[in-house]
Amino acid sequence: MTAQNDRKYLEQAIALAKQGVKEGAGGPFGCVIVRDGQVVGRGWNQVTSSNDPTAHAEVVAIRDACRNLGNYQLTDCDVYTSCEPCPMCLGALYWARPRRVVYACTREEAAEAGFDDAFIYLEINIPPGDRKIPFYHAALDEAAAVFRSWKEKGDKKLY
Amino acid sequence: MTAQNDRKYLEQAIALAKQGVKEGAGGPFGCVIVRDGQVVGRGWNQVTSSNDPTAHAEVVAIRDACRNLGNYQLTDCDVYTSCEPCPMCLGALYWARPRRVVYACTREEAAEAGFDDAFIYLEINIPPGDRKIPFYHAALDEAAAVFRSWKEKGDKKLY
Fold it and tell me: What SS3 class is residue B70?
């Protein structure tokens, strides 16, 4: 992968960001996913138009690429996104396992434009119960038992 | 919200986790979302059955609740999940903005059952280029320009 190709695909991601805003889909974010020199997935932010807070450009592109590839893994794929992925999208990328991620704007530039990315990165390291949205731990035997059954299950599909 | 109600809804989340595994939908995770004493969204892991790495119980439940409520915000909602949300789901919850989150198993128990949650929590704090999946920053004027246009846009819908 050359720097020139990186630039070409980043520009495609940025074009999707612009187009999405123009069409009123959502925020100014776009993403393309590439494997073997082919674009296999595209996404742009659709949070407000689809009433889906998870419809960030990267999540939309991951879902599109996985649908196109018929797989829940993005092995050997490169992800190009107009902005540094937020923690949700970073997590989604780790679960999809592409080869690498290239981004243009940073979380600080996103914050400057009015988005919570940098704030959520800070909240992650706060003890769960002290977060702005509090996360409470209530241990239950039944929940642990579900994990025990999973570990013992023979025919499971791992991800 | 009483502790008794918390337990009731956590048990519903755990029942969804069990049912999902039984039906071969995916991993052992379930989630319910409640507002004003009504369940407004349900989810269970569907990663492997739907070829969607983002189809974790919480993401599926958030999307279900938002669809049912016709809103991209989960204002005044409580989220019950059979396991501590992974970074993707934590991020999704922050974007959806419920009132609070209650979880049964921890990220360490998830790791013990074979899931990457704890690993991803560690990777988040590693400098982007040094992560196991490397994230490269390639600044581009065109990308910054999209954010500038967004800031100046008058009729935008915030989220």
Answer: coil
Cα A144 to Cα A149, B8, B14, B18, B21, distances in angstroms: 9, 16, 10, 11, 14
- Radius of gyration, alpha carbons of chain A: 18
| Sheet strands (E) in chain B | 30-35, 38-44, 78-83, 100-105, 135-137
Helices B87-96 + B117-124 axis angle, to 10: 70
| Chain A nearest C-alpha distance from B89 (Å) | 6
Show pLDDT as tens, one digit a residue, over chain A (159 residues).
Answer: 567 899 999 999 999 999 999 999 999 999 999 999 999 999 999 999 999 999 999 999 999 999 999 999 999 999 999 999 999 999 999 999 999 999 999 999 999 999 999 999 999 999 999 999 999 999 999 999 999 999 999 889 999
Contact between B29 and B20 (Cβ < 8 Å): yes
Neighbours of A127 (CB within 10 A): 8
Q: Which residues of B touch A26 (CB under 8 A)?
A: 157, 159
CB contact under 8 A, B159 and A112: no
Instruction: Print burial letters for A62-76: b (CB count within 10 Å at least 16), e (below 16).
Output: bbbbbebbeebbbee
Strand B100-105 to strand A135-137: parallel, antiparallel, or no bridges (unpaired)? parallel
Amino acid, single-letter form, for residue B106: T
Q: Is the ipTM of this complex over 0.95?
A: yes
State the nearest Cα–Cα gap between B25 and chain A, in angstroms. 10
Q: Hey, are the CB atoms on B28 and A95 less than 8 Å from each other?
A: no
Which residue from B7, B82, B91 is facing A91, i.e. has the nearest CB? B91
Q: Contact B48/A157, CB-based, under 8 Å?
A: yes
pTM (two decimals): 0.97
Give how far B153 is from chain A: nearest CA, Å. 10
- Angle B117-124/A87-96 helices, nearest 10 degrees? 130
Cβ <8 Å between A114 and B24: no
